[in-house]
Specification:
Layout (H helix, E strand, L loop, with lengths): L10 H15 L6 H5 L3 H11 L12 H17 L2 E2 L6 E11 L5 E6 L2 E5 L5 E2 L6 E9 L5 E2 L4 E2 L10 E5 L23 H10 L4 E5 L9 H5 L5 H7 L2 E4 L8 E4 L1 H7 L7 H11 L5 E12 L1 E16 L10 E7 L5 E2 L2 E2 L3 H20 L7 E7 L7 H8 L8 E7 L25 E5 L5 H11 L5 E3 L17 H4 L5 E5 L18 H20 L13
Parallel strand pairs: 6-9, 9-10, 10-12, 15-18, 15-19, 19-22, 20-21
Antiparallel strand pairs: 1-14, 2-11, 2-14, 3-4, 3-13, 5-12, 6-13, 7-8, 14-18, 16-17, 20-22
Length: about 550
Amino acid sequence: MRIIKVAAASTLAVFITFTTIFSQSGADPRVAAGLDAIRAANLRADLTFLASDSLEGRMSLQRGSEIAIQFIAAEFAKAGLKPLAGGSYLQEMTLIEYRPEPREMRLTLSRAGKDQRFEYVKDFIGTFPYDVTVRAPVVFAGYGVTAPEFGYDDYAGLDAKGKIALVFDHEPQENDPTSIFNGLGNTRHANSRLKILNAQRHGAVGVLVASEPNRKHPSNQERLARIPGITDRITRLPSQALADSEITIPQFSISDALTATLFATSGKKPSDIQSSIDATLKPASTALSDTAVEMRAVNAEHRRALTANVIGVIEGSDQSLKNETVIFSGHYDHDGIREGGIYHGADDNGSGTVGVIELARAFAANPVKPKRTLLFAVFAAEERGLLGSYYYAAHPLRPLETTRAVINFDMIGRNEAPSTQTEGLINIGSDTSNELNLIGTMNSPDYRSVVERENRRVGLSLNYKWDDDAALNVFQRSDQFPFALHDVPAIWWFTGFHPDYHQPTDTVEKINFAKMEKILRLAYLTGWVFADEAKTARFLARPVK
């Protein structure tokens, strides 16, 4: 790091310069130089490249993605960030890329000495990175949730060892505004990955996830069906997984009809069972009599390949507090090329990628550095299951227990607009041209307070509606989520869905760069507070409304 010494005679000039900037931006003179460096023109230039035809939609493990990695690393180097992964900006990871063989994917029910085979896609959906066949009795494990902070455990008194666990999706009481979980929204425990890991910890050999029979929203399969081209994306694109994934057992999502069939010997309807759990918050877990299932996953293709998160740091200025970390993050990958169309991903998530780069430049250009260390991370393979951020959370380059906040950008470049994905599920304002959604603040009111305080200087309209979402699973769908699982205050900054979401029409000329600049100025001011003030944001496992 180059140290610039300012002669005493020039001190007054420096002060006058800072004061002038302060009067224009309303910011603390210590941070004004970096704040002023954030420019829409820079964002436009970077995003024009990242979302160009030449990067071919930046599909994970493909050529365009590799170009994006090198571009981000080069920009971090030019800004003067310190590499953290053994002298490199690249935190490499091994992925398994695989494509299921639909004709061999199998779910077979054995009952009364007879086998009944169900159809892939129609009756169940799911993949697994390795060929595997498990056959075992089925136990019903409620919502599959173990949540000590809520005094709730679906596995209490249930022997799931060596069994296949059947669980409802989401979590109890999500239709109840007074639910102990999160009112009408979801908590971390609604996540399917957590349900698999919880079943695994209780000795299960497989998991079947059934949509809640009394749901007031589309199932995951029904929700995905709203996105044009999603069936092609699911069935034709190869899946990816971390080679060292924590998940070691298969999981299939099943249809309502198959759920009813599995419960046929219980003497109870699935809807009545859900109603009982929701009313009493007492588990209804039990073995399903005369019910065994074979789950078989077979892949037509399977390969191992390397990709990387791109990470750089600016070291904190305080000898003690520099051991603590504030993270700015996003993901660089998108959906590649399909049927000759390039899925440019200008908003998703070229916007977040260039946002992280621009903030790295801004903090690097500011003469004064905050007390805590700033880490800038652009993650791999988010579109394939948050793989890069899950990898970082499992292999952190700085301790998660001293990570004080995460500001995650995913789609910060557009104005939210009604689309088939959101129709009937969420209210979208008539004018969102100045609006920013913050997702996850129910677990960190301190974080929210800081953003709101700093926003007085920026003037965005802040919206928290996605914290009350139980239909689209939005809280779980970006790279802040793996950090929230580790009790780190982590919020997704998001300008919302629009009709171009996951379409070839998500292109750079539709980006609202003036709005992006305002969002990044707010993130800069907020990040400075997180990194410099004595008090840090808390993570609350029980959401606060």
